[in-house]
Design brief:
The complex is a heterodimer of chains A (284) and B (250). Chain A has 284 residues and is an alpha+beta fold. Among the domains of chain A are: 141 residues, no CATH class; 50 residues, no CATH class. Chain A is built from 9 helices and 8 strands. In chain A, strand 4 and strand 5 form a beta hairpin. In chain A, helix 1 packs antiparallel against helix 2. Chain B has 2 domains: 46 residues, no CATH class; 187 residues, Oxidoreductase, molybdopterin-binding domain (Sulfite Oxidase, Chain A, domain 2, Alpha-Beta Complex), CATH 3.90.420.10. In chain B, 31% of the residues lie in helices and 26% in strands. Chain B is globular, with a radius of gyration of 22 Å. The chains are: A alpha+beta (284), B alpha+beta (250). At the A-B interface, helix 1, helix 2, helix 6, helix 8 and helix 9 of A face helix 1, helix 2 and strand 4 of B. Chain A: GO terms for molecular function: electron transfer activity; heme binding.
């Protein structure tokens, strides 16, 4: 440990006895994390390209050009826009109308830097999306099975009554605002906001993304018609899929900001090697 | 520490390189093979884990789209096709041939006199929109049974009257979907005869797959043992030209 006791938050630099390493992430968790990092990145960007093929969202069983869209990204003589219901938001240059790599003006919903492939190509976007969708779905399945067996879910994800009380939630919000993310009593555990956001992503958002995605498949709708009833129709499922993708993107952005604030080297190293440096605390 | 920092910088470089890298990966000849294997995996999973004869949902009349938009070719526009339109398809014949015992040439009147199925189903375009309409037509199974498939027939190919960029439209399905009860050759839509915009005189309905499989302006039904010998070899116009999936149940 000599010479390595550098805390990324710049404290306790020369006092190795004040920090210690704990084994935070199992191999399964680490593999799943990095596979997902790539997979979700590909799914979001290829999904943006698929959306470009018909940049309108509807509620219900059907929805096409003559039906009322609740969300639309398009362009008119005033430029690119995003429309929510009847409200028009000017998004010229970013959404609806934007400048391509070669300087030409394009009228598509998402710009080239946000899509896979970068040029308009529904067929290959679907190839990327549908193949990586399998990685996401089976990755989640294997992670959940492994996490039940190694008791990751039982130990780290199950909510305890005292955690979800308003006092504790408020305490954790304040701690986050003070950029203090470790619980000194349990430095290896998740704080409650962290636990809640992981619970929502793993047990709500990713499963919703998978099942609303399946509901867009005409073959799966025939096989499992209950999905149409659960989500209120194929076009509703498509809308929920888009909203869920937006929330997952929001999670990733917040996640990255918090990793940066909490000490990116320690965090990234922890997710690669499994070992995380935490304040030593009191020996127990 | 140095190793970690290097790892981190490497990670950031890899992540930003990925942005442009996906396009380059897609162009690499080996990579599409991996990427395209997803289609086979989906088809395998759907076919092995779910009921192959499951019916697509049928809707009530009050759930139908007020306006069912047209798309793709809306008029073949060739002199031959126009002549058929002018004569109300009186001289038009559906050719049924290939690996069949009794090749057929069916008039529209003959097809309409065959037992018909009416179904209100959802049409899902690969682009993402859906429209619900009512279709009337003869189950493909009845036509194929009349022609008598030879044992080596594995796929049914639909040759169409429309050309896109000079290339004839065509599509193909396997026998699981060809003999599915909802797979019909539709001659009517929403209680009227099929319009030119929607594929007159005959349009394939294959309700568990995406819209581009629903071949319009069908002129000929051919039973084959191998799709690789048909045109571009991938089983359909869009499959040949833009790499859409042949199995469009996803």
């Amino acid at each position: 440990m000599d010479g390595e006791a550098l805390d990324e938050r710049g404290i306790d630099r020369v006092e190795p006895e004040r920090t210690r390493l704990i084994y935070r992430h199992t191999l399964g968790t680490r593999i799943w994390h990095w596979v997902n990092a790539v997979t979700i990145f590909v799914l979001l960007m290829s999904g943006a390209m698929i959306f470009n093929a018909h940049p309108r969202l509807y509620w219900g069983q059907y929805g096409a050009n003559f039906d009322r869209a609740w969300l639309e990204i398009s362009a008119d003589d005033r430029g690119g826009y995003l429309k929510l219901g009847d409200r028009r938001f000017d998004t010229d240059g970013v959404l609806g109308r934007w400048e391509d790599k070669d300087g030409s003006i394009r009228n598509n919903a998402f710009p080239y830097w946000a899509t896979i492939p970068s040029g308009y190509d529904l067929a290959h976007a679907r190839r990327w999306h549908l193949t990586f969708a399998l990685v996401l779905a089976f990755g989640l399945l294997f992670f959940l099975i492994a996490s039940l067996f190694n008791r990751h879910i039982q130990k780290d994800f199950l909510l305890k009554w005292r955690e979800v009380g308003p006092a504790n939630l408020w305490h954790d919000v304040v701690e986050h605002l003070k950029l203090r993310f470790d619980n000194p009593d349990d430095p290896g555990g998740f704080n409650i906001l962290q636990k809640l956001s992981y619970l929502i992503v793993i047990f709500v958002l990713i499963p919703l993304a998978i099942f609303t995605g399946l509901t867009m498949s005409p073959g799966m709708d025939a096989a499992w018609p209950w999905m149409l009833d659960l989500f209120g129709g194929r076009q509703s499922a498509r809308s929920i899929h888009f909203i869920v993708a937006s929330l997952i993107l929001l999670f990733i952005l917040v996640h990255l900001v918090l990793v940066l604030l909490a000490g990116p080297l320690n965090g990234v190293r922890g997710m690669i090697s499994g070992w995380l440096r935490v304040p030593a605390g009191e020996e127990r | 520490m140095i190793v970690t920092r290097r790892k981190l910088i490497g990670g950031i470089a890899a992540a930003s390189g990925l942005l442009g890298g996906c396009d380059r990966l897609g162009e690499n000849p080996a990579f599409p093979k991996i990427l395209f294997s997803g289609e086979d995996a989906h088809r395998f999973l759907q076919r092995s884990l779910t009921d192959r004869m499951a019916l697509a949902r049928e809707y009530r009349p009050d759930q139908m789209s007020p306006i069912f938009r047209t798309n793709g070719s809306t008029n073949p526009g060739t002199p031959e096709y126009q002549a058929h339109v002018d004569s109300a398809f009186a001289n038009w014949r559906l050719q049924v041939d290939g690996l069949v015992r009794h090749p057929l040439a069916l008039s529209l009147a003959q097809i309409r006199s065959m037992p018909a199925r009416t179904q209100i189903t959802r049409h899902d375009c690969v682009e993402g929109w859906s429209a619900i309409g009512k279709w009337h037509g003869v189950p493909l199974k009845l036509v194929l049974d009349q022609a008598g498939l030879r044992p080596n027939a594995r796929y049914i190919v639909f040759h169409c009257a429309d050309l896109i960029g000079g290339a004839p439209y065509y599509e193909s399905i396997d026998l699981v979907d060809a003999f599915h009860p909802q797979t019909i050759l539709a001659w009517g839509m929403n209680d009227h005869l099929l319009t030119v915009g929607h594929g007159a005189p005959l349009r394939l309905r294959i309700e568990r797959q995406l819209g581009y499989k629903h071949a319009k302006f069908v002129m000929r039904v051919e039973a084959v043992d191998d799709l690789r010998r048909i045109r571009g070899g991938k089983g359909g116009f869009w499959e040949d030209t833009t790499d859409y999936e042949w199995y469009a149940g996803i």
